From TrEMBL, chains A, B:
GO terms for molecular function: NAD+ binding; prephenate dehydrogenase (NAD+) activity; prephenate dehydrogenase (NADP+) activity. SUPFAM superfamilies: 6-phosphogluconate dehydrogenase C-terminal domain-like, NAD(P)-binding Rossmann-fold domains. Pathway: Amino-acid biosynthesis. It comes from Thomasclavelia cocleata. This is Prephenate dehydrogenase. Residues 1-276 form the Prephenate/arogenate dehydrogenase domain. Keywords: Oxidoreductase. It comes from the Bacteria. Belongs to the prephenate/arogenate dehydrogenase family. One of its GO terms (biological process) is tyrosine biosynthetic process.
Length: 276, 276
């Protein structure tokens, strides 16, 4: 199979690295010449292209790992092989799929996906097949998808090290992702921004503050797009979180140990069972 | 110098491991016989005691790594060597020091401390001198402390791998800690408790949710005590956080990309500079 990965950043780079040794013909497209050369030198891709039109027209599977708006541009500006599959790694799906379905050739199958894997560090040098190890994958099924294409993608992803592949609608994806991905980012941003900077904070932190603020360092263009394209779900998730924070506040205001203990017992049990 | 570490859990265990090879005579006290045996076998302590009265009366430095209320009991029930120093690792200081000063022998110097190091895992087997590596330490100075004892502790802690040792009042400690430690714990608990459990959440998470909920698994007795003994500071920290979360909500409600971008640029800059 001819597979082309578009955008060899940390996610796209991890795809080409995870694909090594699986017997596919893997090509890469990126704007950065050095990245392409490095991917070639490491034997991850047969050849790299800055202009991918030629290889795209021959690819059986195109994995587009670009920012949402660039994925749409890429689909618009390229002629894909008839009967081939395109997939992506965009973090929001309802809005994005609507847009994508408007521009995609009906002879081409778009199976949208979301590898729940990444790093706060950017770029090919941080890409690794370990990024995918034990990570979760969500595949999006929408009414025009062919069943066999979804099944193919499920199997394909399963060979790359992911521990779970779930198939769901774009709406369900955006609902759960507003809670598991966007809410944590909103919280991390609000936490570090709420520092009154009276003290030299970095000298008074442990791993808890480090862990909770790590994802506060984010690309503002990407994340404002992700937040705004899923704003209703995200607002609901924030409000549910605030209700729980209110319970903690209630325990503090009323000096009620029992309220707090109950909340902590519940959170501990949930955390222990999270990935069981 | 004769040093006795009381409680060989992850923090106390890390103390005896970090003290190896520094030329001190190190002893350990713990209720668990196996832990003491293991610490002896690993050459971390000369001898372990379940009843420590004998060794405590000879120790120049006693490092008590027990839960807050147990520290007070231990101080009450033991006769310390005249002129010796006692320290602890309790996470709240104003209330705790008040209680401790009421019961401590005036011939003994209590230099309270807070190693900002730990693990979500409990027990001696997770203790390691690496726990202290590059971590922060806070030493508490109060009016009855002898200057030379504070200076001694500052130097002593510096030999154990910590990258920063700060000296401050109990009030300042509790203020900054309500933000850097207790607020993150409150957030983690509220986040995981706000899961409506409509989906099998563990299959739809990435590292962001894992990182932000790791500390949601906490000991309910310890943490309700830490929260309630510092409730006014913690409530202020929660309220400052909520104001920042409100700004994100405002950006979402008003569909305003500029508000969000500004918040994300600020949080990214703060995170990048956090430990510089």
């Amino acid at each position: 199979m001819i597979i082309t990965v578009v955008g060899l950043g940390v996610v796209g780079g991890s795809f080409v690295k995870a694909l090594k040794g699986h017997g596919h013909q893997v090509y890469g497209i990126d704007i950065d010449e050095n990245t392409l050369k490095r991917a070639e030198d490491e034997g991850c891709i047969i050849k790299g292209y800055q202009d991918g039109r030629e290889i795209i027209s021959k690819s059986d599977l195109t994995i587009i790992c670009l920012y949402p708006s660039l994925v749409l541009d890429f689909i618009k500006n390229n002629q894909f092989k008839k009967g081939s599959i395109i997939t992506d790694a965009v973090g929001i799906k309802s809005y994005f799929l609507q847009e994508a379905m408007n521009i995609i050739d009906p002879d081409v199958e778009f199976v949208s996906g979301h590898p729940m894997a990444g790093r706060e560090k950017k770029g090919f040098e941080y890409a690794s097949k370990d990024v995918f190890k034990n990570a979760n994958y969500i595949l999006i099924e929408h009414p025009v998808n062919k069943k066999e294409c979804i099944e193919f993608m499920e199997k394909f992803v399963g060979t790359l090290g992911f521990k779970s592949v779930k198939i769901m609608s774009p709406q369900a994806h955006d609902e759960i992702i507003s809670f598991t991905s966007q809410l944590p980012h909103a919280i991390a941003v609000a936490l570090i921004n709420s520092d009154n900077e009276k003290y030299d904070t970095g000298k008074y932190i442990g791993d808890s503050y480090r862990d909770l603020t790590r994802i506060a360092n984010i690309n503002e263009a990407l994340w404002s797009e992700l937040f705004l394209r899923n704003r209703e779900n995200l607002l609901k998730s924030i409000e549910a979180f605030e209700l729980q924070l209110d319970l903690i506040k209630q325990g503090l205001v009323e000096n009620d140990e029992q309220i707090l203990k109950k909340l902590f017992i519940n959170s501990s049990k949930r955390r222990e069972n999270l990935e069981k």
